[in-house]
Amino acid sequence: MPAPTALPIWKIHTDILRTLQGGNRLVLVAPTGSGKTTQVPQMLLDAGVAGDKMIVVLQPRRVAARTVAARVASERGGKLGAEVGYQIRFDDHTSVGTRICFVTEGILLRWLQDDRSLSKIGAVVFDEFHERNLLSDVALALVKDLQQSQRPDLVMLVMSATLDAEPVAAYLNQCPILVSEGQSFPVEVGYLPVPDQRPFTVQAAEAVERILYEGEPGDILVFMPGRGEINGTLDALRGLRTQERVACIPLHGELEPQEQDRAFAPNSLRKVIVATNVAETSITIDGIRHVVDSGVARVARYDAERGIGTLLLEPISRASADQRKGRAGRTAPGTCHRLWTSIGHQTREERNTPEIQRSDLAEVVLLLHSLGIQEAATFDWLDKPDPQAVVRAEKLLTMLGALHEGRAELTPVGRQMLRLPMHPRYSRMVIEASQRGCVPDAALCAALVSGRDLLARLDRDDAQMKGLREMFEDSGDSDFITLMRAYDFAKENGFSFERCRSHGINAQVARQVEQTCQQILHAAQQQRLYDRDGGTTAKGDEALLRCLMAGFVDQLAKRRVPGKPECDLTEQRQGQLVRESVVQEAAFFVAGICLIRKTSVWPR
């Protein structure tokens, strides 16, 4: 591992400081491996660019914020949480003396609610901005406005390896652009000669086997779209036909921190790390010489027809492919094995679609209203959202009771919702639950639907599993109650993998539900919506069902024919209740989760 000052970014160290000391804005393009994420914040601190105020570095992913902060703290010989710290959702490792703080965008936006002038912050660094996350776009616009109106001393720095710099510089009033060199070691890129229709988990395992067979030194990084594909790849890797022992390690955002750290820790065996795109940017894993890229990722999109957010499996852009390739060849020549053809590569999108053009805007619109910005559609965006998407968000917020009917002003309920770090649907549920004495149950329901599926979908012919599932289906009122019973079973059995699997429960998801539920309860307690040590708890399911209706009031469905699955939803939408649902008789019901099918609705 080279000394930090030997990294390529140091070649333009003087230019960076001169630009920011003579102005207050800069766009920096520095390829993967240049050291921008770890070194630039230290340059700013040591040169006094932020004065006696804090330098905040925005990261698009929690894993990156935590691991990069640990790396920088180590380089400076300090303890994490002292001079260098991080803050992500429900996890704060900072102190009064923190001078460099790595945060996710949502944290900065919440700081803006509490302190409109960001009086304790001297510089804001937008790292990996090419990902164009919704919250990073909002943060950029708000910090730009703050700098122009109140804080000309506030420094803004936008960084990325594959950013189209000119539009961002133009948006920031034609600010300077600097370009740094990347790694000097070549990366040999290989493509499939013809398309391969087999699962890419199998293809990836075979690519790893070829690397090992050819005797190429160095660790291997495999990119997969999600946890399920990671597990499938790890299963396929167990059948490797090689005499070399390797350490197969998963890496994704749903792992516990200590499990994530295994990917970064030294290992006596060659590491084969199978990761989501959390490893695509910011994070440096020492020793990687080879990349195997599935070429796909799960992308969040808002389905306007059904009024729901979806996660779709899509080909990554060419810019993302370059980011992934850049993980190899950091310290020596490397290889990148792409599981698609060279012709297919040319048909991919050049860059990622900005999230603001494909996402549910409810949470962001609520935030903007809290900051006095009532015309979100005409806000100073880098890329403007679809005006209809803003209208839909405001309509949902009005239905949830966060905005006054007929005028774009926050209600008292809306101000309470702002203080809970979750989607407005779930914060509305928790607030309703605080009035009905069932906050723990509402928090559990929010946790159950904010992540991956707890229960596996049933096969039509699996009579044994169907019989086991029925032990959780003791209420025909709601599929949420079924999920709660399944979660209780998992918890009572210590989240045992085997016991959970035998009943169709994902034990790892159940553990994550437990953690998320406790985090929501902690947030509710901080806002005095819940008292762990006192008060009464509602008995029965009636109170909880009313809370669910409050959070999903726009997903009210009416059955067309009694006992049949076809139904009509609000906004002239149509759907079909899936066969797993216990709600088979009710004339009206509320859909908490929708499947991605042309006319399907799946209340859980």
Key terms:
alpha/beta, Rossmann fold, 21 helices, 604 residues, 20 strands, Four Helix Bundle (Hemerythrin (Met), subunit A), globular, 4 domains, single chain, six-stranded parallel β-sheet, eight-stranded mixed β-sheet
Q: What do these coordinates show?
A:
The chain has four domains: 4-179, P-loop containing nucleotide triphosphate hydrolases (Rossmann fold), CATH 3.40.50; 187-355, Rossmann fold, CATH 3.40.50.300; 362-545, Four Helix Bundle (Hemerythrin (Met), subunit A), CATH 1.20.120; 552-604, no CATH class. 36% of the residues lie in helices and 18% in strands. The strands form four sheets. An eight-stranded mixed beta sheet has the order 4-3-5-2-6-7-1-8, sandwiched between helices. Strands 9-16-13-10-12-11 form a six-stranded parallel beta sheet, with helices on both faces. The chain is globular, with a radius of gyration of 25 Å. The model is unreliable at 595-604 (pLDDT under 50).
Supply Rg: 25 Å
Strand segment count: 20
Spans where pLDDT lies below 50 across 5 or more residues: 595-604
Oligomeric organization of the protein chains: single chain
Mean pLDDT: 86
Counting DSSP H or I runs of 4 or more residues, the number of helices is: 21
Overall SS class: alpha/beta
Largest sheet strand order: 4-3-5-2-6-7-1-8
Q: Percentage of helical residues?
A: 25-40%
Q: What's the end-to-end separation, in Å? A: 49 Å
- In CATH, the architecture of the largest domain is Up-down Bundle
Class of the largest domain in CATH?
Answer: Mainly Alpha
Examine the coordinates and then state which fold CATH places here, giving the name of the CATH topology of the largest domain: Four Helix Bundle (Hemerythrin (Met), subunit A)
Count of discrete structural domains = 4
How would you describe the shape? globular
State the major sheet: 8 strands, mixed
Approximately how much beta-strand content do the residues carry? 15-25%
